[in-house]
Each structure stands twice: as C-alpha cells, then as structure tokens.
Design brief:
eight-stranded mixed β-sheet; 9 helices; 8 strands; binds S-adenosylmethionine
Length: about 270
Amino acid sequence: MSNTQPALPEQDRPVATMAGHWLLAKLGKRVLRPGGRELTQRMLEAARIEGHDVVELAPGLGHTAREIVLRKPRSYRGVDSDPAAVAQVNKRLGLEGAVVHADAAATGLEAESTDVVFGEAMLTMHSDRAKQTMMAEAFRVLRPGGRYVIHELGLTPDGLPEEIKREIQMALAKSIKVNARPLTNTEWRALLEGAGFEVTEETQFAPMRLLQPKRIVADEGLGGALKFAGNVLRMPDERKRVLDMRRTFTAHRDALIAVGIVAVKPAAPSE
Ligand SMILES: C[S@@+](CC[C@H](N)C(=O)[O-])C[C@H]1O[C@@H](n2cnc3c(N)ncnc32)[C@H](O)[C@@H]1O
C-alpha cells in the first residue's frame, strides 16, 4: 500500500458548491456513510465476504474496500463514477486496476460474475428511477443466490408524510449540494423487490450521526477526529459548510436514519 496519495475528488470545485462528502474528505474525514463504521461492520458480516467474489459499488476513498480485502474474498472489484476516487482506491490498496471508472447503472461487468455486490452511501444520491436502474444492474451481475448488501440513508417512520419527506430532501440538497433522496425502509425494500430481489432478513438500523462528535471519534479514531476538528477550525469557508450540514442533520434527526439491507437474488429454480 502506497503513502503518496493521488488527489481527492472535486478539490478544484469552489467550497460553496462542493459535494458534502468530498468536502468532509478534504477536511480529513474518512468515513462517509450514514451509519458509520459500526453499521459497515454489521453489513460486511451479513455479506459473508470470505471466499466469495465481491463487487463494491462506489468505493469512494476505499475505506470499506480495505475492510473487504482484509476479509479474504476470492476476488475484489470496485466501480466508481469519479475518476479521482478510482485512482485513490487502486493506488492506496495496491489493487492495480481492480476498481474501474464506470457508472453503477452500467458497470460493464459480466452478467452473473459475482457472489456479493456491496454498496454504501451511493443509491441515496440518485433519483428513484436511477436507483431502480442501479439495482437492476446489481441483479444482473450477481449469480443466482448472490447477495446485494446496501447501507444507505433512510427515513423513519414508514408513514412519514410526503410533504415532510420533500422538505427533508430539499434541506439536504441545499446543505450537502447533492440531490439526496433517502427512503423509508418499506420504500427501499419495495425498490429492491421490484428489481427481482428477495428481502428476507430484518433491516439493520443505526442512528444518522455523521457529524456528531461521539460518532466522529468512533469512526475516525481520536487522532483522526482531532485532525478533522483542527481542519474545521482552520478553514472558515469549509467550517461554514460543515456547520450548515450539521444543523440540517440535527433539525431532521428524528426522521433521518441509516439503513442496512441484505437483498438476495433468488436461486435458479431446480429442473
Ligand atoms: C458518499 S460517497 C460514499 C463512498 C463510500 N461508499 C463510503 O461509504 O465511504 C459516494 C460515492 O459514490 C460514488 N458515486 C456516485 N454516483 C455514482 C454512480 N452513478 N456510479 C458509481 N459511483 C457513484 C461517488 O463517486 C462517491 O465515491
């Protein structure tokens, strides 16, 4: 694994319009998913990585990629739509091209070529129609019996009124500069079932506390948390954005939640 890092994504964009996750990455934050490291670990357990072929959609900076590789899969491949992210992961993990630059909606991977598709904090960033296309693509590349494991932003409770959902979506878009569209557990499951998956395991939940100090320490370690806090204090434009994001998450903390779902591609019917 190399120490010299390629550039982070979007660092040439003005701070005011940079996507929230790349802004946090610029400030030294490494865990960029709503349920944090703890929900990632639970979902990796549920994915049953060891000895299986694994595709990760949207590895970002490659922190979950590292966890996957440590769990000894038979093979690891990744797909990210950001070329700088692709370069980061290949370089950091010495993966030599295992991560490719493509859209999760059209990965270019062979049909029925993997046992596990793992993806965190990516579907949420897209419209429901795009989510459906990406789920269909995950279905295509999985072998029958394969597992599609997601860790995304959710809304609770299931019956949350539509106008509140819209209000939250607008607040997120304004603050993180990404059209985030979180869904309720029932909505996530319905989309997965619509793509042909079976969801038989209970959804896993975690509080959405991405920017709360306790979670930052749990995710980044004390040293990482101090480095992040130091950067936030030193950089006023970035600080303004981070505080705005934190205010938005706090304002909607009762409705925002992290969800982890295991969806299974049904095994081929026996002859
Ligand atoms: C919030 S980051 C999450 C990164 C990583 N999964 C994590 O949890 O730390 C979102 C990632 O999704 C990638 N992404 C967004 N849309 C994508 C798409 N349509 N296809 C592939 N990757 C995509 C971005 O480039 C970025 O790396």
